[in-house]
Specification:
By secondary structure, this protein is mainly β. It has helices spanning 6-13, 124-127, and strands spanning 2-3, 21-26, 39-40, 43-45, 48-50, 55-58, 61-65, 67-68, 74-76, 78-80, 91-99, 104-111, 130-137, 144-150, 160-166, 175-182, 185-190, 193-198, 209-216, 219-220, 223-224, 239-249. Strands 1, 2, 6, 7, 11, 16, 17, 18 and 22 form a nine-stranded antiparallel β-sheet that branches. It has a seven-stranded antiparallel β-sheet with strand order 3-10-19-12-13-14-15, with no helix packed on it. It has a four-stranded mixed β-sheet with strand order 4-5-9-8, with no helix packed on it.
Length: 250
């Protein structure tokens, strides 16, 4: 992992500072995540347990496996840069592949610690935005969606969202998923090509942290978990693999 140092950033800025400056180039080398950048969050979430038991690094790949042990507990992975690394009006990109079963959702996304603080959708530029770059479930059969959420989650009239569906079955292959945003809006990319733009959602000016996650419900919008669960870790086909993550900030 390379967390780009301030000295290098200053050197790259020079007299004519570029619009975007690199702050993260993560290739998941080694056996453990860099604790200066990443946290594996733990605890109950929905109908499963976030745990390091679901997260592995091997051969330069971060692998999140959603699986079920013999007592019926389903384990998920929640890997974030919360409180460690943020991007402000920048660009995020990850090279991923996935195989997701019903009852599970996986995502490469970004969030702000001040999301919804103003209590109004109009305050999203300073509050921050939930930016779901790649989000999918077992029901999408290898397709995915990109979604923007802004305004307080629990406020019926101020909660806003905008989304697009990418139905092609791409999950079984490695692809690059990205987003760049500024005052003009959001530009989502697939393998370097812009595939969706949105100007309805205010361009977040808040610091945004990164997340690579899996979540599982007994039954929900992501489908219904099999009664027997997903099997032990080595047998589970419920996987989210990430080969590389890059981030730039303005």
């Amino acid at each position: 992992m390379r967390l780009l140092p301030a000295l290098l950033l200053a050197a790259t800025a020079g007299a004519a500072e570029p619009a975007l400056r690199p702050v993260l180039d993560e290739s998941f080398d080694g056996d453990v995540l860099d604790p200066k950048v990443w946290t594996i969050e733990t605890g109950r979430r929905r109908d499963s347990l976030n745990s390091p038991k679901a997260v592995d690094l091997k051969d330069g790949v971060l692998r999140i496996t959603t699986w079920t042990d013999a007592d019926g507990t389903t384990y998920c992975g929640f890997v974030t840069t919360r409180k460690k690394l943020t991007v402000t009006q920048g660009r995020l990109e990850a090279r991923c592949r996935f195989s997701v079963q019903p009852g599970t959702q996986i995502a490469f996304w970004s969030q702000s610690p001040t999301y919804g603080r103003s209590g109004a959708a109009a305050g999203a530029a300073t509050d921050g935005v939930e930016i779901d770059i790649l989000e999918t479930t077992g029901l999408k059969k290898g397709g995915y969606q990109s979604v923007l959420h802004w305004g307080p989650y629990k406020h019926a009239t101020e909660k806003k969202a905008s989304s697009v569906q990418h139905p092609a079955p791409v999950g079984g292959e490695w692809h690059d998923y990205g987003v760049e945003w500024d005052d003009a809006g959001y530009r989502f990319s697939f393998d370097g090509k812009v595939v969706w733009t949105d100007a309805k959602c205010p361009g977040s000016k808040a610091p945004q942290f990164l997340l690579l996650t899996s979540e599982s419900n007994l039954k929900g919008w992501n489908g219904e978990r099999p009664k027997e669960g997903y099997g032990l870790k080595d047998a589970s086909r419920n996987t989210f693999e990430v080969d590389r993550v890059r981030a730039w900030t303005r």
